[in-house]
Amino acid sequence: MEARRLAILYSHLCPFRSASVPSLSSIVSPSSCAPQSKETFPHDCVFCQIIRGDSPAFKLYEDDMCLCILDTRPLSPGHSLIIPKSHFPSLDTTPPSVVAAMCSKVPFISNAIIKVTGAGLED
Fold first, then answer.
1. What is the domain-level CATH number for residue 91?
2. Which residues does the UniProt record annotate as the domain HIT (predicted)?
3. Total structural domains in the chain?
4. So what's the pLDDT on residue 48?
5. Could you say which of 25, 69, 83, 85 has the lowest number of CB atoms within 10 Å?
6. Does residue 100 belong to any structural domain of this protein?
């Protein structure tokens, strides 16, 4: 199973190397969860849609607290997102225990990405 995930991750990353990077203005957009939004509903939140399975995403990791997915518009090879399984409008409102759970996955996920991309292996 790990080999399959790494192979899929690698296939996701290779096309990026030959593609041009779009401008940030075409990539960055405000979230419906952002404070400037008039209404914040979990059903409108793209991350909630992914958690529910209403929106497609390639999962790298999942447990009871969080989910790690490949970014659909990566800014660099291996660009992934770790998101909580519960809706929070901002990181400031996310409970410390949830933030800790998400952060504790970073070494595991980054090691897998480094293994696939070969990042940091050039001496």
1. 3.30.428.10
2. 46-123
3. 1
4. 93
5. 25
6. yes
